[in-house]
Amino acid sequence: MHDATAATGEALYRLPRTVLPRRYDLRIEPDLATARFTGTEDVAVEVVADTSEVVLNAKDLEIGDAWLLSPAGEQVGATTSYDEATERLTLSAARALTPGNWTVHVAFAGEINDKLKGFYRSVFTDGDGVERVIGTTQMEPTDARLAFPCWDEPDLKATFAITLVVADGLLTVSNAAESARTTLPDGRVEVRFADTIPMSTYLVAWVIGPLVATDAVDVDGVPLRVVHVPGKESLAPFALDVGAFALRLFTGYYGIPYPGDKCDLIALPDFAAGAMENLGAITFREAVLLVDPAEATRGELQRVADVISHELAHMWFGDLVTMKWWNGLWLNEAFATFMELAAVDAFRPEWQRWVSFTNERAGAFAIDGLASTRPIEYPVHSPEEAEGMFDLLTYEKGASVLRMLEQYLGEDGFRAGIRRYLHGHEYGNAETTDLWDAIEEATDEPVRRIMDTWIFQGGHPLIGVDVDGERVTLTQRRFRFLPDDGEATWAVPLLVSVDGGEPEKLLLDSPSMTVELPGASKGVVVNAGGHGFYRVRYSSALLGQLRSRVFDLEPVERALLVDDAWASVLAAQAEAPAFLELAGAFGEERDPAVWTTLTAALGAIDRILDGDGRAKFQGYVRRLVGPALEQLGWEPQPGEDDLTGETRKLVITALGTIGRDQATIDAARELLDRELAGAGTAGPDVAAAAVTVVAANGTTADWERYLDRYRTATNPQEQLRYQYGLGQFAQPELASRTLELCMTEFRTQNAPFVLLMLLTNRDVNATAWEFVKREWDRINERFPDNAIPRLLGGITALSTPELAADVEAFVAAHPVPQAAKTVEQHLERLRVNVALRQREAARITAALA
């Protein structure tokens, strides 16, 4: 349902449907040396109603000749005009256009920009120290119009026949396989590519540069390659293994062959997002594609596997079947996140990927408990609003509710519904309700009624649990961090386990219900298996039962118990000392997902304490975490699983940073010295922990070593470890040097994250905030648009009342239109943290006396 304002928004930003594109014949001629390109397009269109205009999108393009070809072959002249506000190019024809098949011809030119969107430049230094240039693209959400005039809306699908005219010797890649190659009289090479399937403009891609490609791996008839800068060949095999595995898995899961004719995974030195699902030409940041398994932590390997699997899942869910408009973006991204997790869990079962997802889901919970949260799906009108959809609610909350539904319905029925949906809409577009209807038809469950309550209203429920004999009373109310008088009800698909037994399905679709569950007096676990997107608050008696047998719970259930307890503290529903008492029960914990949850809360407490209170808290952390490290040791043991190494990394980091344990700091420094000398034997997880610990306690000499290692690292993961390490030093003068590097040397894709780290670094956050204010215009000029709201996430840690007031005033005077909702959420999270400091700092200090 749209109000008048929404209708006006659509009128401003949606193109008329009188002329529809069917096939683009697109020719692009770039000059990488001058950062310019020229192009022509002949677009086969269908005129569906009498008109005298053709209206399409363009931005920052110089428009040349434009004309039309009638169904009878007659050339019809056209004049062009442009509306900058709506980014619309209008061709006014010399005579009326009647319904039928026409061709639109436009010549154009533009800049190969340095803003990491549209058609842009990426640079790297080769083995001879020479700077080389790559021309590449990033079209999502609405930046194809920067590269060529087009109908830049997701439901206006067409096939694309792309021709690139490039300097000889450059590797050239696009969505489809190369079909012809001709050397022109001037020495350039004309490369033509086969027609694509019908697809949206945001999926169009081309990459041109001094790159190399691996030999293709045949994945059941699909050639799979990794494309990268020269010299990084040894970092590609893991990506090929993951890619081949995921392609086979998804082909079987979806029951539909891969929709392209080839698949290139392309590593780019400069890329604003993590990766982009361009059909057949998937682009990535180097750090999430190229990796040396012998030098990477388990988490770094998992990240590579995640991103590759996510993008390949999109080949079907997003590319083959696409949302009709950007309000449905969640459907693409949430499902790709869901399938990424399923694929990585199958690829490396020992990683327990669904368990570690608990930690990512916590980020979505943290936003969704705010008054400023939003529904997963909500109206989108402008390009800025479309940009703002790329957040944790779209990805992590969306994936969480899909997982919750799958586990409630059963995997077979859920998959049958997905197949029905894809087969019914292949090569076309769909809406959220189409998916629910398909799953409902496959399962005979009230899927739409359940899921509408999760998709079209923001927030999530807090499920109250009480037991009287065998009778279990379940209640729901909206969870909020700050006081909330509003009412909301969800259809909550619950899985409830009694006395450790098999979970029972219950649907809580009213404010409360009471059920008979034999054995309930012996203990109840709500959200058994940990798949539901809701918080749970047990009665004190039930909570006591759970604490007494906490290690009988599954790791994900233990992590959620901790996360729910900490959320209660943030919401002023429990006191911090009670949380610390609960945390004390986890000294023997060995699962990294639980430790990640624990250390996140301990780090938040550390940020609100000063002086004697902080010193006492450091002692508490040493007492809690120290025994775990003593038992684990610093050296991996023969036959040790990957998760143990991850836990070791977490406890070393917590002891050396939050606990400021001197023995741990000394050991980390000794280990790092060996690593930097090339004599390290501790393994990647411990080495990564040492980088963090030494940085947090480091000297100017250490900072210099980190900068040198960042500049000379041999793989992307190591480079990022030391680069982000530069953001963890505690001295304001070192922070100032790092801040300046963000504006000069660091790539614009990474610098915002270093700024984020400095803003959350309690020792230098005031220095970082002053820098952000002073350099605000420069920051917005230098960094990609989507990076600004990300770096501003650091303001949530500026939780002294004085700093918070300054932040509120500055942000009010400097709006971020591409992510207004996200920034509003940052500010509310800041208020939650200020209230936490004012409410709990003295209480914690007294409790630890």
What does this structure look like?
By secondary structure, the protein is α+β, with helices and mostly antiparallel strands. It is 43% helix and 22% strand. The strands form seven sheets. A ten-stranded mixed beta sheet has the order 3-6-5-4-7-2-1-10-13-12, with no helix packed on it. A hairpin with a 4-residue loop joins strand 1 and strand 2 (36-47). Helix 9 (432-443) packs antiparallel against helix 10 (447-455). The longest helix is centred in the last third of the chain and has 28 residues, at 820-847. The radius of gyration is 28 Å and the shape is globular. Mean pLDDT is 95; it is low at 1-8.
Number of strands: 29
Count every helix, treating DSSP H or I runs of 4 or more residues as helices: 27
Are there runs of 5+ residues with pLDDT below 50, and where? 1-8
Strand order of the largest sheet: 3-6-5-4-7-2-1-10-13-12
Query: Which percent range describes the beta-strand content?
Result: 15-25%
Q: End-to-end distance, in Å?
A: 57 Å
Radius of gyration: 28 Å
**Average pLDDT metric:** 95
**Largest sheet data:** 10 strands, mixed
Shape, per Cα inertia axes? globular
- Helical fraction: 40-55%
Which structural class do the helices and strands define?
alpha+beta
